What does this fold into?
Amino acid sequence: MTIGLALALFGATFAAVFGAMGSAWGISIAAEAAGGVLSEDPEKFGKVLVLLALPGTQGFYGFLGAFYIMLKVYIVGGGAPIPLSAGLQLLAAGIPVGLAGFVSAYYQGRASAASIFFIAKRPDELGKAIILPAMVETYAVLGLLATILMVSWIKI
Amino acid sequence: MSLIAMQKVAVIGHLDRREPLLNFLQEAGVMQIAPLPLGQSTTATENFELYLLELKAAIAALDTAAGVKKSFIESFAPYKETISGEFLRQTAKEFNWREVIAGLNRIGNELANLKNLEGKLLADRRLLLPFTKVRVPLDSLRSREQIIILAGSCRAKVLDDLTGAVKKLAAGHLEVVGGDKTIYLFLIATDQEAGAVNALFDEFKLEKISLPSSKLTPADETKQLDGLLKKTAAERNAFNHELAGLIKHKKRLTYVYDYYLQKNGERLAGEQLAHTERTFILTGWLPKKQLPKLKADLEQRDKLIAVREIGPDPKEQPPSLIENPGIFTPFELITKIFGSPSPGDMDPSGPLAFFFILFFALCLSDVGYGLILAGIAVYYQRTLTLSEGGKNLLNLLFWGGIATVFAGVITGSYFAVSLDSLPPSIGGPLKSVQLIDPVKNPLNMLIISLLLGLVQIITGLALGLYWKLKNGEYLNGLFDYGLWIFFLLALVLYGVTTALGRETSLLFSRLAIAGATGLVLTQGRNERGLLKKAVSGILSLYRTTSFLGDTLSYSRLLALMMTTSIIGMVINIIADLTRGSVPILGYIIMAAVLLVGHLFNLVISVLGAFVHSARLQLVEFFGKFYEGGGKAFKPFRRETAYTIISPK
It folds into this structure.
């Protein structure tokens, strides 16, 4: 295994771990709000669950970024011999989705919590309530996109 | 694809006709009542709201008793029985629901009391349990004149020290009852040494135990408690049995609930009327085309009711009701998320339909997922009782599923299975219709996404232009929309031709400059003074960056497309790994991984596709031409919670 391959895997790790941590954090914030709302009205579980799930996507984006790097370095077959410079490039490519996902998932969790309180008072407005946290997610999508484009363009 | 013309009317009639009229309007559900300031509370002596609260609590209690659990889907679309309004009325009249509620309350109270009693008995029993070996009546184990007797417990390791300390008292005795890690004991001393005894409790962290008072020994008392507990359990069972006997009334209670929901709606509507001694007046809005029928229904049947068309109050805005041809109706849902159009605005449901479905399909883009989604939508349409919004949502998902199938064919995605791994006889033809492979070549898909964005943004501006021209605002339309379309198209074509090294780029650069000049000259036209006009004209070009940002926002189409397909791929890989893990059983595990994994991916991908496609409509598309701000038309009609009232 070359150092380059190890660095590339580190990029994948960064993407997956930070995306997942952000989602866990974001969902826990939304879940705290959900717990409060459900204690008043357990019937709202379905609607609340949809809002609760929204900050979960960053974890998937991070995983996706990681998987894309893994695909690139052919880790299934034991890993291609990656030169040091390409490894560093792939490490850099893992950062956008990981970091943007981490921070945006936290803030999306807060937006979801606000939407959960919104739905508690106005259960008919689920559409609007979903759109608000989705605005935050845009920036995680951009992070993912940056990662994908970098990975697909990096030459190994 | 448009707003429906609304008409405000006044209905005047004799007071006798008030209730039949409200009944009629509630059933017809065509008119939104506009409250009159002279409204007064009606003479209704019954407190419908209280009834509703009582009934709801009773229904919930019976659901709990019956162990009814709502499924996830049911929490969105509870089952509703279709029933006639007359039957509801009959049930409310004949069914003695108050007796059921009184019974429920009594049983509820009794059960609560029993629960308290049981709690107390169990607590006493737990206290007594370590002391059952003591063969003295409990009452003789209490402090009395000159003697203190205290029951307590301590940790085993302090026992020796405690024994020593008690021996130092002038007249003290430590009686150890038993115990393993925690030692239970009695401390006996004279009351002159009360202070010293308390100090011992503090020093050795003894816990005081206040045993229940009784003439029996602890063992006998425990037996008696056991007897009492058995009795309470039997009583509780009896009450639960009685409660179970009431469960059969639940259905009728829901009928009564829905009946009083109608009555309460009628009462609330009645408060929005104005009255004289003999007459009432009701004002409200209804679609203009419904007016002749309403007049016919009311005036011709009854000479004591008159319907008159009236104008709106100053600053009053008619409520908005949009109507679209059947195929576009589901897309009103997206418009309504943003807000109904205000009068004079256009209804964007039709134009957004095409883009929404296209974007939704691109985000999912898998033949298998599309088919499953369409199938699920059809299944739930058939099996669930749905509100208007629910029906629209499922229709939307159905069409989204169908479009996803086509998008899946183009991107060559069939449950995310790699086409290379299929036998050539199947994979070959499928590959020949595959136009894009987003995983291997994301750049192409990115360019397509951005181009689609550009198309939608220009379409939005074109709609704005069309609407302004239609309303006779020719200059506003041409300057604020036409010039922008011209400028943006020239700019994009300049960029493309330059990149391709074509000579026509010079022409487009000149056109773009002409467009920009036009914008600088016109965008400040509403400002006063030449300087202000010039400054805001120049600053208007800054809006180009917002168009750029909007276009980039469409890159999410690529990202979501890849999320769906790569997570699908990962599920297939994991399933493949499990297949060989255990003989025979491996295939079962593989099937489970595939089923659960793809279903999970489908759910989160549909959520993402819906949310992000909707967002592109609401933010990027509507931002160009649609303002919303209308108040949705909410006709006075029958509202129900548990049933659907069949039309007569």
Notes: The first helix of chain A runs from residue 3 to 40. Residues 97 and 145 of chain A are 8 Å apart (CA to CA). Helices of chain A lie at 3-40, 45-53, 57-73, 84-121, 126-153.
